[in-house]
Each structure stands twice: as structure tokens, then as C-alpha cells.
Amino acid sequence: MPRLAVLGHPVAHSRSPAMQNAALAQLGLADEWRYEAIDVAPEAFEACVRALPAKGFAGANVTVPHKGVALAVAEMATEMAREIGAANTLVFAPGQTHAHNTDAGGLIAVLPSDLHGRRALVLGAGGAARAAIWALGALGAEVEVWNRTVARAQEITIEMDTQSVHIQVAESPLEIDQDAYEVIVNTTAVGLHGEDPFEHLPLRREGFRPGQVVVDMVYGDVPSTLLAAATAAGATTIDGIEILVQQGALSLQIWTGREAPVEAMRAAAYSLGDR
Asked: Which member of 116, 152, 169, 257 has the greatest number of CB atoms within 10 A?
């Protein structure tokens, strides 16, 4: 029986197992495949990945904080994963680990299709931020990056500033003109543990407007504080669960070669909030 997993630290909160197992059941593969969560500390990540194929694993999703290392441990990687500099999906082939990145594709699936020349703000500088930057660049946006540690923001702009993605470091928090951005994407973990995002991010609660698209990778049982404020202001909002569904669907297609049942995955991911 092929096994699949999500690797993270922590990972107990992940909705991926319920979502992916619902998809496998919908496809009639539940008797052949199963998906689980594995908590693995950073120092044990590479050894864990190396051991998975012998334990019957066909592939794995990778979440915080391992996406950068996941790319490094793979012998093969897609061009997209290499350009992003992070991987969230691994495929175990005989003697080789292949790295993919479906985070960017998941975000592209839910964003407006043409953002050419539009300003976009990405909050954060980790693996999810890299995928968001790549996705926004692919849609033609002019991307700016903010991170609490300015050096990290500068590093990511240097590494990812290419002919297809032109990015720069956003101005200091007190000077950010929130109204100027067509798209705002929060890739930080702020809000995951109940923090007030308006105390930790360079955003004002009253600073959103109609016409903006606001994405928050953080998800929980109710809309995040960030998205609640954006919705109240008339902005279009996209939560982390929808991104999880879309990237998970792409991962499942890579592993099984079957088109993913997105509706079944979405229903399973959202239903956990009712428990």
C-alpha cells in the first residue's frame, strides 16, 4: 500500500490528512493509498526523508519549517521549485527524490488571472513567501516584500529578482501605503496562535478597501482577524484553507496521475472547523 504524508514541525493542526484521504476515497483509492502526518524536527528532517521510501512512502508534502531543506535534499527538482528555492511536494522514485512546488500553482488558481503592472505586497520571507512571489510575478504583478527582519527581505529579493520576477523590499512599516496595493498576501505565521496581526504586521485594520485582494495563509476554525477586517472593508479575501486545497490537489495529481476531486477535498478541509 503506497503511503503519503505531510512533514512539518509542528504538524498536528494540519488538515492535509483529512483532505487527502477524502480525495483518495473519492477516487476509489482508499484501499490502496493512505495519507498521514509526521512531526519531524529540523535536525531530523533529512534522515527522515531518506528513510521514507523503504517504509513504503510514494511521496510527501512538506510544510513549515522544512520547505527550503526539502529542495536541498532532493536529487531532482522541477524548474519551478528551483526558481522558487523551496519545495512542498516530494516524489520518491527508485534511488531518487524529486522535488516539486505546488504552492505557487495553488495561489495562481485563486488569484485574478491578469495582474500585469499591479502592485502586490508579500508579508514574510520564508518558503511560502517565495512561492507567493513567484506566482505573483508569473501573473505580471510588481512585487514588494516586507519582513520583520529587513536583511531576510533583502536576501529574498536578491535571490529571486530575475527577468520574470522583479521585486523590491517594501518601505518601513510606518511608511507602507496599504491602499496602494492591489494584492496583499500574508505568508507569515502571525495570527496562527491568536496574535493580533495589526500589532505585528505593517497593516492598519481600517486600511483595506474595495477592489483589493487579500490572502492570508493562516487558517483556523473561523476567518482570521486579518481577513475579517478586509472583508468588512469590501476587499476580496482568500483564506489559507483554499490555498491548502488547491496546492493539495496539484500534489495529489503528481502522485497518482489522477485528476483531484477538489470539491471533496474542500469539503473535508472546511468540515474540520465544525468539530
From this structure: 169
Q: Is 132 found in the same domain as 208?
A: yes
Half-sphere exposure for 194 (CA within 13 Å, toward CB): 0
pLDDT value of residue 186: 96
Answer yes or no: do 91 and 118 share one domain: no
Catalytic choice (15, 66, 67, 266): 67
Helix spans in the chain (H): 16-26, 45-51, 67-73, 79-84, 103-110, 127-138, 150-160, 197-200, 225-232, 240-256, 262-271
Total of domains in the chain: 2
* Integer-rounded Cα radius of gyration of the chain: 18
Is 67 among the residues known to form the active site? yes
Burial 251-267 (b: 16+ CB within 10 A, else e): bbebbbeeebbbebbbe
Taking the C-alpha atoms of residue 69 and residue 127, their distance in angstroms, rounded to an integer, is: 10
* Residue 177 and residue 207 share a domain: yes
Do 78 and 122 fall into the same domain?
Answer: no
3-state secondary structure at position 248 = helix
Under-50 pLDDT residues of the chain: 163, 274-275
The residue type found at 195 is E
What does each C-alpha distance from 179 to 132, 233, 254 come to in angstroms? 20, 12, 39
Crossing angle between the packed helical segments 16-26 and 262-271, to the nearest 10 degrees: 140
Cα–Cα dist 125/152, whole Å: 6
pLDDT tens, position by position, 200-212: 999 999 999 999 9
